[in-house]
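User: I've been trying to design a sequence by hand for this structure and keep getting stuck. Would you show me what you'd pick, starting by listing the structure so we're on the same page?

Assistant: Good idea, let's start from the same input. This is the structure you sent:
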């Protein structure tokens, strides 16, 4: 949702748009998906939050990596 500051007097002036708030909001229908309460609060349907990523359950173990390095990048500096 975006907002713009307005000045009405002495002349109309619209400010630079800025983010009012962010979130995952569910439109739920092809019609307007929010409303403004009489006290100025926004009423919106919030969509489900993304689940947290699963924990890392895999480990990679490299054996004889120095020998593999010497094979892939031969150099007389390795000896």
């Amino acid at each position: 949702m975006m907002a713009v500051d307005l000045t009405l007097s002495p002349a109309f002036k619209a400010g630079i748009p800025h983010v009012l708030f962010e979130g995952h909001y569910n439109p739920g229908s092809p019609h307007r998906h929010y409303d403004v309460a009489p006290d100025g609060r926004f009423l919106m349907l919030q969509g489900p939050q993304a689940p947290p990523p699963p924990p890392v359950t895999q480990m990679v173990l490299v054996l004889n990596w120095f020998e593999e390095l010497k094979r892939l990048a031969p150099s007389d500096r390795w000896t």
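That's my pick for every position. To get oriented when you compare it with your attempt: The first strand starts at residue 2 and ends at 3. The longest helix spans residues 65-72.
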